[in-house]
Structures
1.
Amino acid sequence: MPSINDILILLPEVYLVVAACVLLLLDAYLKPGQKGTVHWLSILVLLVGAYLVVSGSPTTPVTAFSGMFVRDGVAEVLKLFSLLITAVIFVYARPYLKERAIPFGEFYTLTIFATVGIMFLVSAGSLVTVYLGLELLTLSSYALVALNRDSRLSSEAAIKYFVLGALASGMLLYGMSMVYGATHSLDLHAIHAAIVGAEWKTLLLFGLVFMIVGIGFKLGAAPFHMWIPDVYQGSPTAVTVFIGSAQKLAAFGMAYRLLSTGMGDIAGGTSGLAPQWQLMLAVLAVLSLAIGNLVAIVQTNLKRLLAYSTISHMGYLLLGLVNAGPEGYSAAMFYAVSYALTSAAAFGMILVLSRSGFECEEIDDLRGLNQRSPWFAFMMLLVMFSLAGVPPLFGFFGKLLVLKAAVDAGMLWLAIVGAVAAIIGLYYYLRVVKVMYFDAPAEGTDVRATADAPARWVLSINALALLILGFTWAPLLAWCQRAFGG
Amino acid sequence: MSNHLLSLLIWLPVVGAIPVLLAGAGRPGLARWISLLVAVATFAASLALLPAYDAATGTLQLSESMSWIPSLGINYSLAVDGISVALIVLTTFVQILVIVGAWEVIQNKPHQYMAAMLVLEGAMVGVFCATDAMLFYVFFEAMLIPMFILIGIWGGPRRVYATLKFFIYTFFGSIFMLIGLIYLYHKTGGSFAMSDMANVHLTMTEQTWLFFAFLLGFAIKVPMVPVHTWLPDAHVEAPTGGSVVLAAVMLKIGGYGFLRFSLPITPDASHEFAWLIIVLSLIAVCYIGYIALVQQDMKKLVAYSSIAHMGFVTLGIFMGFLLVRETNDPDAARLGMQGAMVQMISHGFISGAMFSCIGVLYDRLHSRQIKDYGGVINVMPVFAPFYVLFAMANSGLPGTSGFVGEFMVILAAFSANPWIALFAAFTLIIGAAYTLWMVKRVLWGDITNKHVAELKDVNGREIFMLSAFAAGVLLFGIWPEPLVHLMDASVARIVEQLAITKV
């Protein structure tokens, strides 16, 4: 019987679901001229949600609904950043949605529901909660991708996403059923205990492989990356930015819950399945780093380029997970946060530069940006160097941590693969900088930031944060380490 | 104040770049004056290092330390020894001349140019101050960004190719160094302090891997044969100021890195592979000298001559191992090392001056081809003596700073192995050949190109810039004592370390 205490632990989630429903109703009753209210309200809703996450944060991990829902440091970090980044995305999205007449209400409500999905996913204490959170997140995302009903690309992307996503969900569920069969439990801690005591592990390994397929799909790690470029390119950019940033936090949370809490090792021993999944993740990491970076080189579409860059970044995130210890998890979480912030700024730039009739999607659209809008060219420069991992920008320190995690795990070779991949990746990020700074603006084009002032301001803060956090990342790292008991 | 002098030197130009960018947009005059003010202030602050630094002991001084990332043991720790002080003063000095040199020349977005230069200056000073390996790495990489922009925006026709090559090449070298540093961090048990890394015990295999990781990072920066190919491209395409900074300071960072990382951390591997470095250095001195001889482009010629001159730096540094560990002659090792350091400073002045001279000619005729000139002395009588002086210094004429360092290295080489000295001494012939032949074709003879006949002589701004370089070249050529004294104790400490084995 759920007690009031359980509900209190879930307060941020409960609050957000209620708020999203209210927003949906409100949107239905507002006159077309007043739709802007929904925008500001939904940002407020998210910020209040972020406040609830932080204010009610317990000092020790607590669980609700007999262990199905966990509220601990990891969940706190991931939830807080998901909410904040989603709020930032809403600011970026407004001018874009307005100019393209994409329905406001649906976008905000669906995104908030998806965020609730992220929150459940990262707080999962049982297989059911993982699946529940994942489905809430992905079903909302399918609809979001298809939001631009008149666009063929958008519909095509939604269908692809849906078909592949359903397949991956099925795989995940299949894996879960095997694990359930072998351990007779859905609770992740109980599964862990059962695995440690198990003598016959073949069925568990099969289950593990299928679950890794599901995780790999959600992360967008090669070879489960096929959906990423098409969905990134086809979705309205306002949706791409959400899929490309906040959702990466969810993917990390899901991987951590399933692999570490459910199937990891006990500190100091190797009786879980970590040695098995470490190797699988290492393979995924190498493939992602190679495919993501190599294919990104030939892209001409900026959104596609960022899509392939995501794949390679997930490879780096996996380097942290491969470590399979608290240091590695905190490095991977740090990486996820730093990547989410950076990619929010990268897609935010596309949103801010695009206007009706001009999507600013091609790399060539940025030609000569430094002549037209030196400030935003500089912001994009920061974003690109952060993605490339050049110090003193934030992105470098994420890379440093995951490379260190790989070396600590005794996988020096993997760190070297990561280093080589960084060199390859450098080329296409530099190419974007080159187009902005070294090329003259093309005749007859006029690329400049036309978005409203809040979007421009928030984007500037977001991009400058990458520089400032490059000097002041110690608290964030300490916070990540604390979350994993470091 | 005095205990934050180093931080001031690093952050003053970086912070100074902000008003240049903000106030200077649309007001080029203001941007120029602010950046000149910042550069002069930084130089003045760097002069304060000279009395503050006690050259007699040669230890790391003026240290500052502050925890940066406590959970990883990364510190913001700075300190300088005599070598760093000399290089920092060189950096801040050259920076003023670069800003003066760009005054009227850079018309396209001068505020961005000046700001990039100032950020670059801060990062370079940071490299010379850092005593935490991670901090060093951050500065080492951070300086690529402004340089990338400088070459890419204000460079010549093939600037995009050159700047991409420059960035990727350098990044390629340093990323393996990063892995090496992470490995060392692992070995020291959680410290990035360079002194801890120097004390950690390493097997020969580990040292060998680390040595090559460092070699890749620093050899590309120096650059050494065969990883020098980015340099001629970068130099030819870079704007004059970019070339000057690249040659005068950035190349020195490679040599400096060897001193700070390869020598103390991997002494046995460095000894084992000293022959490799010596051979590569001699190839740079002789073979690259020949390549310089056939260049048609003045900038390319000076770029190749830079590679050849930097060969003396790596030669002087690594010859120390032969002298200390094999012929047991620490005095000669000290002489060679000293020579390498003097060569670094002297080459900073000479190459900066040569590139500035070429810049002066290029601004007038918009050509760097030697064949387009000839008889310049007839129309530019004030400019010509400067050009001749710097060319003489470049070929190592006694009385100029170019002679001192090379002579010391050659002298030390005799104690190590006369054959090394013989090949090293080739530079006196080849260097004279390619430089003087260029002077002959550019300055002397009859005017064949009608555009040359219309050349205007140098103006006051350019005379100031060239005189400042000339003062440095002559001062350290005639009276190198203060410079040698400044670095001597620090060099002696490094030479002492050479004998300590880790295995």
2.
Amino acid sequence: MRNVIAKLFHKSPFEALHNHMIKVKECSDLLKPLIESFITGDRKLIDEQVKAISNLEHKADIIKKNIREHLPYHLFMSINRADILRFLHEEDAIADSAEDVAKLIEMRETKVPSGLKEDLAELVNKVLETVDSLKRTTSNIKLLSQSSFAKKEEEKISSLIQNIDKKEFESDVIQQKAAKDLFLLEKKIDPVSILLLMKIMKELGSVADHAQNTGSQLRCIIAR
Amino acid sequence: MLKNPLFIMAIAVGLCMAINIGANDVANAMGTSVGARSLSLRKAIILAAIFSFSGALLLGSYVTETISKGVIDSTYFVDRQSFFIYGMIAVLLGSSIWVTIATYLRLPVSTTHSVVGALIGFGLIGGVGVGGINWGVVVNIVLSWVFSPIIGAFVSYSLFVVVKKRILDVSSPLKSLKKDGPFLMSTVLFILSVSFIGGCFKRLSNNFTLFYSIGISLGIAIIGGVVVHFFLKGYSLNKNDEYEKVENFSKILQVLSASYVAFALGSNDVANAVGPVAAIISVLKNHEVSRQVCLPSWILAFGGLGLAVGISIWGYRVMETIGKKITEVTPTRGFVAEFSAASVVLVCSRLGMPVSTTHVIVGAVIGIGMARGVEALNLRVIRNIVFSWLFTLPMTAGLTMIVCKILITIL
């Protein structure tokens, strides 16, 4: 049976992209309970949560591979193929960084000094807020294509992207403050703990960084 | 004549070809309606059958004349009537066989192109030589194959840009739909009824056709516009699902354009099956091979019936597959694609150019893609279409020559 028309329409990658975002969000959202148990020092809980994060990161990876495999060169899309792939790469990096945070926490039994507990909790909240505003932005892509890239929808996404930038900036500020607080305690803690805590905070910050980069990539997509 | 085995054979192979056309071309043309969920499969089949039949009957004559007298000069066969009849049967058989093979191989061949190739094959074996074939007509036809998808793309691109500018890319799509929806509906209804009623008058009498059909069509268009105006008034201005409301309205437009596409298709494609049959009957009846073949309505009706049968028995499956596979197309896009394709096919058909409906609709969909209306299109299909252009002529020509040789040896 010949079916030119059925063949002509290629499956849109938008739905899969949305599914990828959902998985990435699920994965990074687990950072909050993980940091909480890191603060209380519950090793058993930490092990479980790290495993769950790894698992979700792997699932996001599978979706990513699937999208890549189904975007051959001869596709003609409303969004540039390279832009989609770069977007996907950055979005996936969010989950990768979340997993790195988890690995760092699991790697060594590090005690969180009481002066840093509040900072850490605040930092993870702001980082997750950044990811959340990214998710709210990407869920508008469907509208963008429904309206065939109407200016109204583009502007809406644009302002949502600015919101991501704002959140990322705020998380940077918190991260800087946390680092300062950590070095205030440098006499009381062993150097290895300091090294590890620094690394954890930096990696948490890159979760927000990647969320911001994903948003910027979306900006390129709109600005075609 | 009715007991003549050649007559029965001609009717049989003509029917076979018509069924093939109905199954493939019609199903392809209306597939986006099923894909966009504007029409259920069953309704799509019924509409397709009714409108392709009426299209064949009312507007079918234009292309049929071109096919039977254009490609080969039939006066070469004045002294060889029976050979001419075998040849025409071979033309139908050869193209039917090729369409069936291509269907099996999933090559998007055009039934129109197949018949033209078969006629060339017949011309070559019939001893008219290369010079006996009217290459000017062939070149025209080949050009129209290349240009018809491009024109289809251009028309649908323009139409979609208008729809986008007026309805989608505004601060409130629903508000502009309320304003522009009636005009859009009127325009669609007007074009549809002009072609439909114009065809009716053409069959009945030759006087005042244009005047009457435009008058009646205007009336229908105005009534339709007013009805739509009041219908749209009932839509509440809820901010959340404006695009969906627009798409919902487009479903009505798409049902209309699907009927239009089936109508255009019937008028365009019936010639492929019926042209050679008409030529055979004319020879059997008048015992001479003439340049012009008169096409009685019953032959067109018979062709239309074949189309309808093809749609119901095999087009069902084609449409089902298309409908399941393309879920990304929305009613606005489907409407634009089908409406543009049908308009291009009808105009080409009036001008006597046998174009492939399937290829025009592929062009129309790509046109919408160029306006960023579709998320992802697989352009490899174009490569397949070009292959089918390259293969169809030599394959059907060759097949027809073989079939013709066999027929002459047997009979």
